[in-house]
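Sequence and fold
=================
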Amino acid sequence: MNRLLGPWFVVALVLGAAACGSDDELAGPYGHGGSGGSVDGSPGDSAATDSKPDTTSKGGSGGAVGDGSAGFAGGVGGSAGGVAGAGGAAGTSSGGSAGADSGPNLHICAPVGPPECDPPADTTPVECNDFDPCYLKVVQAGIQAALTNHPELFDTNPPDASPGCTLVLDVAGYVAAVGEHVIASGLCFDPGAPAYEEVGVKHDNGFAETFDILTAEMCVRSGNGIYRGWCSPPWF
């Protein structure tokens, strides 16, 4: 019986295989997409979030198999990591297009919104750098507001100080007046008490910036050099 049906059986198998097609053909117009981004070149899932400083987060690739959905966004870095890559386009016959890679590590200013002033769980900074500041202009405006609104805190012509010195008569009051403006601007403020050597400004627990607004002679410091740097996570 096998000998009689053998040739027809082989033909039937070939025709059946052609009729059924491959899994790729059955996927229809959607094709194969991919999964999420990767972190530091190693495989990651769609929610990868731990890109380290000075690296590039990879963008997600296309939609999942057979559903044509958009690809996941790439892993977004921590406070010092790259911006998330864009998600892939919806699946087509060749699958979703690849998501864009993020740029290199940048100091990204916090978005506008209500501040989060509670300290982080761990207040030990793991990275500090001197990226361009986000809050320099706000602090400088706070210094000017203190000079304008609280003249009693200053001596603009001290006899024994360096030329151009505006002497601070009440350091705590001066720092508090600057902080009042910073807080009113929607940010969080650390006065650096009790030494008041440097003040801190943050929007949330992504990072904080440090400013030195007082010289060793107790004069007001207000130029661009007051910015000292950036640390993540914040110490306050």
In short: Residues 24-102 form one domain.
